[in-house]
Amino acid sequence: MSQENVQNLRAVLEAWDPEAWRRGEVDTSLLDPQVTYEDKNLPDHVQEAYRGHEGVIRATERWLEPYAEMTIQLEEILGTGDRLVSVHRVSAKTRHTGIEFSGQVAYEWTFRDGKVIHFQSFRDPNEALRAAGLSE
């Protein structure tokens, strides 16, 4: 199942479209119905946990809210088995000030029976690797 987890995660993340989330056209098929998402490191909703598909959708809406434009590109997926880390390049333009920025964000993913049961965001990919037990 480990390679299947990598392939499934890659497929979902490469197709991830912020505008589809804004329109409510999201693919939650990889997420367990009881999935938990924790945003521990992003300042707009730090230390919050979101549960279930509705919680993930709500968290994504909150995350996208301040931006007029955003692109997220998958750079790599690291790990094997049921613990993976995805690293992304995010470019965005804020809605009210027009400030543009670009940087990395990473997610640590935990799978069970081919579904994501938990994931969390990190500003630093090395922190995500440590959380997944993939670094020293």
Major sheet characteristics: 6 strands, mixed
Structural class, by secondary structure, is alpha+beta
Under CATH, the topology is which?
Nuclear Transport Factor 2, Chain: A
Which architecture does the CATH hierarchy give at level 2?
A: Roll
What portion of residues belong to β-strands?
A: 35-45%
Our Rg estimate from Cα atoms comes to 14 Å
Shape: globular
Largest sheet strand order: 2-1-6-5-4-3
Mean pLDDT: 87
**What is the element string, with H for helices and E for strands?**
HHEEHEEEEH
Q: What oligomeric state do the depicted chains represent?
A: single chain
SSE layout:
Elements: H1 2-14, H2 18-23, E1 31-39, E2 48-51, H3 52-64, E3 67-80, E4 83-94, E5 100-112, E6 115-122, H4 125-131
Parallel strand pairs: 1-6
Antiparallel strand pairs: 1-2, 3-4, 4-5, 5-6
Short key terms for the protein model shown above:
single chain; 136 residues; alpha+beta; Nuclear Transport Factor 2, Chain: A; 6-stranded mixed sheet; 29% helix; globular
Can you put this structure into words, describing what you see?
A hairpin with an 8-residue loop joins strand 1 and strand 2 (48-51). Strands 2-1-6-5-4-3 form a six-stranded mixed beta sheet, sandwiched between helices. With 136 residues, the chain is an alpha+beta fold. It is globular and about 40 Å long. The chain has a single domain (2-126), classed as Nuclear Transport Factor 2, Chain: A (Roll), CATH 3.10.450. The mean pLDDT is 87. It has helices spanning 2-14, 18-23, 52-64, 125-131, and strands at residues 31-39, 48-51, 67-80, 83-94, 100-112, 115-122.
